[in-house]
């Protein structure tokens, strides 16, 4: 390899000069030996001693997932590949388009190399059923679906085959947590493994009642309560919140309704359980806020209450033209 031979004390200054002039070969590692340094070059450079010496090639690091697939997939396939994926703890879950399923192993191996995570899985179905789980196919790494995900200082243990969890809601969970005041009595109607309750109770001195119909979710919820040092208190219940709530002897200052596909069917329960002046954090899939606002208003009107909409935001895109939207309403008696 052609190199510029320079005294060690001049190495850094000359290296910078060669880089600025695009004369340095960036694919090889600079070598230092005795009192001299050897800088790889693309072509002869006037004013320096040029020598031929063996250098160690630099390991090329891919800057993105698509770059790792160059040579394996054609440009059109790379363009069609959805390179965004969910990272949950040390597990990566990919969404691979139907026309690239035949190359799923190549894509999985590239994801393992690029992310340096333990396990790579592919989505085989949409989230479905009352327990909100999806089918997954193992692609690369170690086939182990249990992991611990870290978020805002909290540790969340889960099995990605048995429960639903979205790392993409981390910002939303932080937003809700920051809006909570110490002393609140909170109900999470569809708590899953407990990301909302755990993040809130880790930072605020509150009492949280957490309900979910998925037994595995509640099992991990209880483990997560033990895994984290909490300021607040969390009490978990397994079952349909419509039935479980019949035994509640208190109303709540805040109710979290993050079941965007079906939460609207439980609005009658939440408006009856909310304290006067309490907040409902309501979520649904929609192309706008109007439908959700109307649903909140209608549910309140049926029981002689009204809602003041205090915040609306798009949490994440779910499909072209549709969003996971958040609507925060303060519920008051008429």
Model description:
The protein is an alpha/beta fold and 334 residues long. The protein has three domains: 2-52, Alpha-Beta Plaits; 65-144, Met-10+ protein-like domains (GMP Synthetase, Chain A, domain 3, 2-Layer Sandwich), CATH 3.30.300.110; 168-333, Rossmann fold (3-Layer(aba) Sandwich). It has ten helices and 17 strands. The chain has a seven-stranded mixed beta sheet with strand order 13-12-11-14-15-17-16. Strand 6, helix 4 (104-115) and strand 7 (119-123) form a beta-alpha-beta unit. Helix 5 (170-179) crosses helix 6. The N and C termini lie far apart (83 Å). The model has no long low-confidence stretch (mean pLDDT 92).
Condensed summary:
This protein has 3 domains: 2-52, Alpha-Beta Plaits (2-Layer Sandwich); 65-144, GMP Synthetase, Chain A, domain 3 (2-Layer Sandwich); 168-333, Rossmann fold (3-Layer(aba) Sandwich), CATH 3.40.50.150. The protein has 10 helices and 17 strands.
What is the strand and helix layout of this fold?
Blueprint lengths: L1 E6 L3 H10 L10 E3 L2 E5 L8 E4 L12 H4 L6 H6 L5 E3 L2 E4 L9 H12 L3 E5 L12 E6 L4 E6 L2 E6 L10 H10 L5 E4 L6 H9 L3 E6 L2 H13 L5 E6 L2 H4 L7 E6 L9 H7 E13 L3 H12 L3 E15 L2 E12 L1
Parallel strand pairs: 6-7, 11-12, 11-14, 12-13, 14-15
Antiparallel strand pairs: 1-3, 1-4, 2-3, 5-6, 7-8, 9-10, 15-17, 16-17
Helix pairs in contact: 5-6
């Amino acid at each position: 390899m052609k190199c510029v031979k320079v005294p060690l004390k001049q190495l850094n200054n000359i290296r910078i000069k060669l880089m600025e002039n695009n004369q340095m070969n960036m694919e090889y590692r600079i070598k230092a030996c005795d009192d001299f340094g050897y800088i790889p070059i693309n072509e002869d450079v006037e004013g320096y001693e040029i020598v031929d010496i063996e250098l160690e090639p630099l390991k090329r690091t891919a800057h993105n997932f698509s770059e790792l697939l160059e040579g394996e997939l054609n440009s059109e396939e790379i363009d069609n590949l959805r390179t965004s994926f969910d990272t949950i703890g040390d597990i990566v879950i990919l969404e691979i388009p139907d026309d690239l399923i035949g190359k799923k192993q190549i894509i999985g191996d590239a994801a393992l190399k690029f992310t340096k995570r333990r396990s790579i899985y592919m989505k085989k179905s949409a989230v479905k059923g009352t327990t909100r789980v999806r089918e997954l196919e193992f692609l690369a790494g170690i086939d182990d679906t249990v992991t611990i995900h870290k978020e805002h200082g909290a540790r969340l243990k889960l099995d990605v085959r048995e429960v639903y969890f979205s790392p993409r809601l981390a910002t939303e969970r932080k937003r809700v947590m920051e809006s909570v005041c110490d002393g609140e009595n909170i109900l999470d109607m569809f708590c899953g493994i407990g990301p909302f309750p755990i993040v809130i109770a880790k930072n605020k001195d509150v009492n949280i009642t957490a309900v979910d119909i998925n037994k595995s979710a509640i099992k991990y919820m209880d483990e997560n309560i033990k895994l984290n040092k909490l300021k607040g208190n969390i009490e978990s219940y397994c079952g349909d919140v419509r039935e479980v709530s019949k035994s509640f002897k208190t109303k709540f200052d805040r109710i979290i309704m993050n079941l965007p596909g079906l939460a609207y069917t439980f609005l009658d329960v939440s408006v009856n359980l909310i304290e006067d002046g309490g907040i409902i954090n309501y979520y649904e899939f929609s192309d706008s806020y109007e439908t959700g606002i109307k649903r909140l208003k209608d549910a309140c009107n049926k029981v002689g209450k009204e809602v003041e909409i205090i915040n609306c935001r798009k949490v994440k895109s779910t499909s072209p033209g549709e969003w996971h939207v958040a609507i925060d309403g303060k519920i008051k008696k008429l």
